[in-house]
Amino acid sequence: MQYDPIKRSLGAVFNKSPFSRKLFYRLLDILLLRTWHIKKQLRIWMSTANDAKNVLDAGSGFGQYVYYLGRKNPKLNILGVDVKDEQIADCNAFFSRIGFKNTHFEVADLTRLNFKNRFDLVLCVDVMEHIEEDVLVLKNYYAALRPGGMLLISTPSDQGGSDVHEHEHDHEHGAVGFVDEHVRDGYGIADLDAKLRVAGFSRTEIHYQYGTPGKISWRLSMKYPIQLLNISKVFFVILPFYYLLVLPFCLILNSLDVNMKHKTGTGVIASAWKTL
């Protein structure tokens, strides 16, 4: 499936005003199961990291998680980085309009990050599956964290969470190591844990997400609508009625997925700490 054209179309629709942009974030919060898992881990982190000051969103995209963190804790200094120039310009303009003074966005290649002991949290959502030199990037995250800081990763698993075979691998904007679509089938828990430890992390917590409830919810809330929109944008008119029917079921399934432990799943969520 082609995700980026749909993302761009949705961004154009919801970027007409700060209100519609915030509505877009809210819809992502509701529909994307990934967001449910990430926000759960962020709430845990915020409840324990009382002295945290600096956050890096590595692969910030539309700025959804920057908005969430900045709204929950306005004292955080948040830097979002992405390879897409237009996305960075868009986010800087939006966050300036809504008065988020402690947020900033920059174009950056994750394989060339050069931060040292700066961040209390590095957030990396749906990025590692696009990176060929993944261990190098994990080492850059480790170097960027202050002692005691945490890395939070969400990525497809090797249990069917990647669409790597459905796309050609064209490099995006010439960024070294970044491929527009997936370069691997996903990560197993042992595989990701081993790479995190090679990068320097000695404490990790990794588990599967998108178990059986999540896989059903994803098909209903994301896969089928995106398939329709890839056929024709006319289906934008039908989507509100579609979601009126399926959304209650998706919310129940998402809640089950977030609160269950899964022996397997099509996604992986990992926390790793730079020890003191």
Written account of the structure:
The chain has helices spanning 4-14, 18-31, 33-48, 64-72, 85-97, 134-144, 189-199, 212-231, 239-259; strands at residues 54-58, 77-82, 103-107, 119-125, 145-156, 203-209, 267-273. The protein has 276 residues and is of the alpha/beta class. The protein has a single domain (4-212, 264-273), classed as Rossmann fold (3-Layer(aba) Sandwich), CATH 3.40.50.150. Strands 3-2-1-4-5-7-6 form a seven-stranded mixed beta sheet, with helices on both faces. α5 (85-97) links the parallel β2 (77-82) and β3 (103-107). α1 packs across α2 (18-31). It is globular, with a radius of gyration of 18 Å. The termini are far apart.
Quick synopsis:
This protein has a single domain, classed as Vaccinia Virus protein VP39 (Rossmann fold), CATH 3.40.50.150.
The percentage of residues in β strands lies in 15-25%
* CATH level-four homologous superfamily name: Vaccinia Virus protein VP39
Report mean pLDDT, rounded to a whole number: 89
Overall structural class, as computed from helix and strand content, comes to alpha/beta
Report the uncertain regions: 162-179
Which architecture per CATH? 3-Layer(aba) Sandwich
> What sort of overall outline do the alpha carbons produce when their principal axes are compared?
globular
Q: Radius of gyration, Cα only, in angstroms? A: 18 Å
CATH class category = Alpha Beta
Number of domains: 1
What is the helical fraction, as a range of percent? 40-55%
Strand order within the widest sheet? 3-2-1-4-5-7-6
